[in-house]
Amino acid sequence: GELCSFADSATVIKQWQDVSSPGVAAKVKLSCGHAIFAKLFEMAPAAKGLFTRVNVADVNSPEFNGHVMRVMGGLDVLINYLGDTPTLEKMLDHLAKQHAVRDGVTTAGFGVMANVLMASMPQVVEGFNPDAWRNCLIPILNGMSVGLP
Ligand code: HEM
């Protein structure tokens, strides 16, 4: 089945591709990723403790930058696969398993992330379509939370 409608996925993919052309993609991902984590830690301060291994103590460190780019690279791939549900579902399964082994990562944490993404994306995406983005992001985050406490 579909995760979000064909029309919604087409909108989200197009709007995301507008901000992820090769020339600007890395910069957008890093600055947008930092804004997303800052907001996540503001809304859920305890979540900071999950990222000590990647040096969250210094959010501008190479280690944390690397983490931000893994997350944003992951999100980039997921968005671009909204039109290929079977592959998207396998990637979500894989990410769910990678998160399930991290102590303290919860479904509630992904719920906060949904709010953070919906609040942050309009700042980088031109003509942000909230309905299309919500309809597509929620199933992505739900798929990544399968098996989490
Ligand atoms: C848009 C949503 C998210 C995406 C695309 C995403 C993606 C990723 C990716 C690709 C990794 C690296 C996996 C690896 O190499 O092992 C990762 C690691 C991790 N993620 Fe997420 N993630 C998301 C949301 C979250 C949320 C909401 C939390 C916590 C509530 C979380 C907690 C973690 C932790 C603790 C790690 C391991 C960090 C380390 O390397 O020590 N993630 N995530």
The CATH topology name reads: Globin-like
Number of separate helices: 6
Rg, Cα atoms, Å? 15 Å
N-to-C order of helices and strands: HHHHHH
- Report the count of strand segments: 0
For the biggest sheet, the summary is: none
Disulfide bonds: 4-136
Binding site for heme b: 99
Keywords: Disulfide bond, Heme, Iron, Metal-binding, Oxygen transport, Signal, Transport
InterPro entries: Globin, Globin-like_sf, Globin/Proto, Haemoglobin_extracell, Mb-like_M
Describe this protein's structure:
The protein has 149 residues and is mostly helical. The protein has one domain (6-144): Globin-like. The chain is built from six helices and no strands. Helix 5 runs antiparallel to helix 6 (130-144). The chain is globular. The structure holds protoporphyrin IX containing FE. Protoporphyrin IX containing FE binds at residues 47, 50-51, 53-54, 67, 70-71, 74-75, 95, 98-99, 102, 105, 109-110, 113.
Can you give keywords for this protein?
single chain, mainly alpha, Globin-like, globular, binds protoporphyrin IX containing FE, iron, oxygen binding
Helix-strand blueprint:
Elements: H1 6-18, H2 22-43, H3 62-80, H4 85-100, H5 107-124, H6 130-144
The site of protoporphyrin IX containing FE has 18 residues, from helix 3, helix 4 and helix 5.
Domain Globin: 3-149
Binding site for heme b: 99
GO cellular component, one term: hemoglobin complex
